[in-house]
Amino acid sequence: NVGSESSPMAVFVKGAINETDPDEQVHDLVSRQVPEVALPEVVRTQFLDSAQANNNSVYSSDLELSDDSNINFGNFDYVGKPNGQTADLTVDGVVYIDGDLTISKKDIEYFHTTTPNKATIFVNGKMIIESQILSNATYPTDSVLAFVNEDRAGIDDDIFVDVQGGKTKKIKAFLYSGGRITINKQITINGTIMATWLQLNQVPNLIAPSESAKDNFPTLFPGKDLAFLITANWREVTVAP
């Protein structure tokens, strides 16, 4: 179930939506073509410049957030905890990862140390999400996190979401890719999805962020107007299963 008339999920896809699970249907998903509206592009160097100005919050290699270790980038850090506890991710402003990002094995709870309470992680590579991403505060009013990457030539899935455990598991974050986002397992995503291609291998539960997100929108996240788009002129098109 993708949103509803009263509470639409903020999904903007300029391209294709594929659904491959034979046991599920995307009941309320309507594809609306608005030819004059394009997926907003991101400028990689803008994120890099912002991260460098943010106390050089740049991580210059592939990054895996999955174990009990501590990882620093600028003033911010990931603190893994033993015995299966949720890991802490402290982040503000823009962080730039010059490589692939994998979040697995441990759920993550993110914190902020400054006001406004928002952050964006730009991934100059592929992103794999296999664990929950949760906010430590009221989301998105008092805390919000976004992930952004570009279309990477030769990569099938620019953002691959494969969290086990069904729709009780959650991602509280905004997701943007200039290429393809694949949702491989049932999960609840509370946020905004923006991509050229959205692949649904299993149908997720998608929940729109509250209106408070307009006042606490993730730093440099593209297309604020599109994330809360109300379409005046549209036509329905058939989406092949």
From TrEMBL:
According to UniProt, the name of this protein is Uncharacterized protein
Q: Which organism is it from?
A: marine sediment metagenome
